[in-house]
């Protein structure tokens, strides 16, 4: 039996947790804690919540890699993940055990050192991502990311609950913002990798709907998301409100630009079929994808800033 390099095993276990996704989740957790405290919470509590949230997200992502290893092998974007690449550093059973262990440690850490509501919400996020998104919706419904994306909204609830021991209206508004942000963010990515999802038999919206339908949905969800960001203004303050207006206008302009690009591309394609002279317009969905990450980061930075400043509130 071939011996395995401990470094390669450790690297594979970390890769299974999808660290880049976890980074984005943590970006939303700390501002939620600052808003709940209306200042800086105990550094120890922040550290515990971040570590617990990281472990919980890593648990969900690892179990997702275990369950989706068959379709990950078919998609170029995911073919390098540890359970489907040729290195064989980690076995599927080991990955599953790793994922479950991360979830158990996250639960105990949050429950014992923060509170059990925060721990329960972290567990709910894991269960929702695994059972609702991965097992129930992902391979069956074009609404997979719309409903299943709620799993990525739980960190703000965990952060709020860690500070307050409850879940209040501002935390629910933060949840709604991320919930409405997720479809435009992910559909832009899925437009780029539509053939991957089609090959794997995953009915993401860009696979089952025309591009103009996808971008129209992106635009509508973007409008709803910006409205949700403005609903937080009474709780976060006027500095946040000003930032939300500027950032929202920026996001809507980019979403509208993508929709116009797609519509123009369809017209150009029809013209090319009739007359090969006009060049087709190439939509750039990844521009909106990358912008959506910057948008969410800056929006939650505004939440954090308003919570920390002695002025800027109502």
Tally of structural domains? 2
Annotated CATH architecture of the largest domain: Orthogonal Bundle
Instruction: Give the biggest sheet.
Output: none
Radius of gyration: 21 Å
Mean pLDDT: 92
Task: Tell me what the structure shows.
The structure is a single chain. This protein has 314 residues and is mainly alpha-helical. It folds into two domains: 8-166, Tetracycline Repressor, domain 2; 168-314, Four Helix Bundle (Hemerythrin (Met), subunit A), CATH 1.20.120. The protein has helices at 6-16, 19-37, 43-67, 69-72, 92-113, 116-137, 144-148, 154-164, 169-192, 194-200, 205-208, 211-231, 233-236, 238-274, 285-308.
Compose a concise summary of this entry:
The chain is mainly alpha-helical.
Present the secondary structure layout:
Elements: H1 6-16, H2 19-37, H3 43-67, H4 69-72, H5 92-113, H6 116-137, H7 144-148, H8 154-164, H9 169-192, H10 194-200, H11 205-208, H12 211-231, H13 233-236, H14 238-274, H15 285-308
Features:
2 domains; 15 helices; 76% helix; mainly alpha; 314 residues; Four Helix Bundle (Hemerythrin (Met), subunit A); Tetracycline Repressor, domain 2; 0% strand; flat
């Amino acid at each position: 039996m071939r011996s395995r390099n401990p470094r390669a095993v450790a690297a594979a276990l970390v890769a299974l947790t999808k660290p880049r996704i976890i980074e984005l989740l943590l970006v939303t957790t700390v501002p939620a804690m600052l808003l709940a405290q209306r200042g800086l919470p105990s550094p120890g509590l922040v550290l515990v919540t971040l570590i617990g949230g990281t472990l919980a997200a890593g648990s969900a992502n690892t179990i997702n890699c275990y369950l989706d290893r068959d379709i990950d092998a078919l998609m170029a974007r995911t073919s390098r993940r540890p359970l489907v690449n040729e290195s064989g550093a980690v076995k599927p059973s080991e990955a599953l055990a790793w994922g479950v262990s991360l979830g158990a440690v996250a639960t105990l850490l949050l429950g014992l050192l923060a509170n059990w509501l925060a721990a329960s919400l972290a567990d709910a996020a894991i269960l929702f991502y695994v059972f609702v998104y991965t097992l129930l919706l992902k391979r069956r419904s074009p609404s997979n990311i719309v409903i299943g994306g709620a799993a990525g909204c739980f960190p703000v609830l965990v952060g709020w609950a860690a500070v307050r021991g409850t879940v209040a209206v501002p935390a629910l508004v933060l949840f709604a913002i991320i919930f409405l942000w997720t479809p435009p963010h992910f559909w832009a990515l899925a437009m780029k990798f539509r053939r991957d999802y089609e090959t794997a038999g995953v009915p993401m919206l860009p696979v089952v709907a025309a591009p103009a339908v996808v971008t129209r949905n992106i635009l509508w969800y973007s409008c709803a998301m910006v409205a949700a960001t403005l609903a937080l203004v009474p709780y976060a303050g006027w500095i946040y409100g000003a930032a939300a207006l500027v950032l929202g206008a920026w996001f809507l302009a980019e979403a509208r630009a993508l929709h116009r690009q797609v519509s123009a591309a369809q017209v150009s394609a029809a013209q090319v079929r009739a007359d090969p002279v006009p060049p087709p317009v190439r939509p750039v969905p990844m521009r909106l994808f990358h912008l959506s990450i910057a948008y969410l980061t800056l929006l939650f930075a505004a939440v954090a800033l308003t919570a920390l400043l002695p002025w800027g509130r109502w």
